[in-house]
Amino acid sequence: QVVYARVESATIATDCATLIEVLLIVNPTPQILDPTPLEVCDDVSADGFAQFDLTQKDAEILDGLDPLQYVVSYHVLEDDAEQGTNAIAVPASYTNTTAFMQTLWVRVEDTANGCHKLTTLDLVVNALPVLVQPSPLE
To answer: What is the pLDDT of residues 71-112, one digit of tens each?
Structure first.
């Protein structure tokens, strides 16, 4: 859309003014999906921490969008995701920092126009089952 701006002096009392055209362009934000939680089993330490490959969720989040046109990044803080800073350096090998359940922020940015959209990804570390030694079967 084209809008017009009129500029005139606030200090000089004349009828002189300048008009300019301003072209407004609204680019769409990426249409992404909220991903299902990424779940893994706890390791033998049973402490609620495990290693995740966050990139396993890229295709689900993009939902058919061209991965060559969109950059997916993962962030611990919402503000970092909004600003596009402090992305998780190695998303294919991330260890959660909150035991058993952590929510990360996901930023998807369109490389063609710079527009972005945020969503969240829940990381779930499932506890190992508790084993009980059965009594001998005779």
So the answer is: 999 999 999 999 999 999 999 999 999 999 999 999 999 999
Strands 70-75 and 38-41, bridge-based pairing: unpaired
Residue with tokens 């991903």: 35
The whole-angstrom separation of Cα 78 and Cα 104 is 8
pLDDT digits (tens, 9 = 90+) for 64-73: 999 999 999 9
CA distances from 64 to 7, 118, 120, 133 (A): 46, 17, 18, 49
Ranges of H-type helices in 63-130: 78-83
Query: Measuring CA to CA, how many Å separate 51 from each of 32, 42, 91, 108, 125?
Result: 25, 9, 10, 22, 9
Q: CA 60, 63, 73, 75 torsion: positive or negative?
A: negative
Q: How many CA atoms lie within 13 A of 56 on its CB side?
A: 14
